[in-house]
Amino acid sequence: MKSFALLSAVVALATASPFAYPRQPLCNANAEACNTKYSNISYIGTHNSAFVGDRDDPRVNQEQSVTQQLDAGIRFLQAQTHKDVWGTLSMCHTDCWLMDAGSLEDYLSTVKKWMDDNPDALITMLLGNGDNVDVDEFADAFDRANLKHYAFIPPTSPEKLEMEDWPTLGEMIGDGTRLVMFLDYGADETKVPYIMPEFKYFFETPFSTDDLDQCKIDRPSEATADGRMYIVNHVLSEEITDDLIIPNEDAISDTNAATGPGSIGAHVKLCREAHGRTPNFVLVDYFNRGEWLPAQQAMNDFI
Ligand SMILES: *[C@@H]1O[C@H](CO)[C@@H](O)[C@H](O)[C@H]1NC(C)=O
């Protein structure tokens, strides 16, 4: 009996995460969020977070850097990856010749450094795997950026963690596993358990659309809203030519407003009516223009 207790103590010590943090009083700057399940909270996210530059440049989607986005309070980062000509997994817009915003490793290192400095923050990241690269290459970049230890692994992995079984933000932050990582295509949780397949957990509304007056399920095709969290692409695009679709910059103050026609609030209301609950994530371009924070607060007014 005694030796059993001793043995369990040793086992407990050995398995305790060396990265466990003292319980934080705030979770993403909000005390109530600590008691809210991850699957029940809503965040505005930055669409193409890595493509930062001058607003006149049609290739960019954001004016402020990833660090500035996080400093401002953004907690959902979306970005796309492609291989550059040297074979490095990089933050490229459609193709690396069009826009190359640096390696995935550098992008992840930026996030890692910011997370080190902000122990109450829980970040969700959604990466696009445009070139269908093996998930091991993503894992290598996470290793090199030393970001892996922050990544959340569902206790049920590789089986799905059902929506109602997600831990609270307080539990996740307390465990030090406060990066929740999804890949659109090519995840394999039997190989890399902390990179979750987006569409196992979420559905998404259409992207690159000029019609935000809908909340259709675009991907996965044939999916229903049951059992999945969801991401709303609140990004208004305009078609310049058949294959050139760019952010509709002229409409941005209406698009990113908290209320009014075409706003974040109007889209969220439509989605609530369509699917019976608030979106988990809403992606926007040029997040710094408009009223993303009041819009985010309104989505979480139940807590
Ligand atoms: C969270 O729960 C509240 C209260 O039940 C609900 O109104 C809201 O839609 C939920 N949000 C999400 C993202 O599931």
What is shown here, in short?
By secondary structure, the chain is of the alpha/beta class.
Could you please describe the fold and organization of this structure?
This is Vacuolar protein sorting-associated protein 8. The protein has 9 helices and 12 strands. A hairpin with a 7-residue loop joins strand 3 (89-92) and strand 4. With 303 residues, the chain is α/β, with parallel strands linked by helices. The termini are far apart. It has helices spanning 2-15, 66-72, 104-117, 135-144, 169-174, 198-201, 252-255, 264-275, 292-299; strands at residues 43-46, 76-83, 89-92, 100-103, 123-129, 179-183, 195-197, 202-204, 229-233, 237-241, 244-247, 281-284. Helix 2 packs parallel to helix 3.
Secondary-structure map with pairings?
Blueprint: H1 2-15, E1 43-46, H2 66-72, E2 76-83, E3 89-92, E4 100-103, H3 104-117, E5 123-129, H4 135-144, H5 169-174, E6 179-183, E7 195-197, H6 198-201, E8 202-204, E9 229-233, E10 237-241, E11 244-247, H7 252-255, H8 264-275, E12 281-284, H9 292-299
Helix pairs in contact: 2-3, 3-4
Protein name: Vacuolar protein sorting-associated protein 8
Organism: Vermiconidia calcicola
Features:
alpha/beta; ten-stranded mixed beta sheet; two-stranded antiparallel sheet; 12 strands; disordered N terminus; binds 2-acetamido-2-deoxy-beta-D-glucopyranose
Using only C-alpha atoms, the radius of gyration works out to: 19 Å
Shape: globular
Q: Beta-strand level of the residues, as a percent range?
A: 15-25%
Low-confidence stretches: 1-18
Largest sheet: 10 strands, mixed
Which structural class fits the helix and strand makeup? alpha/beta
Average of pLDDT: 92
**N→C terminal distance:** 45 Å
Q: Into which percent range does the helicity of residues fall?
A: 25-40%
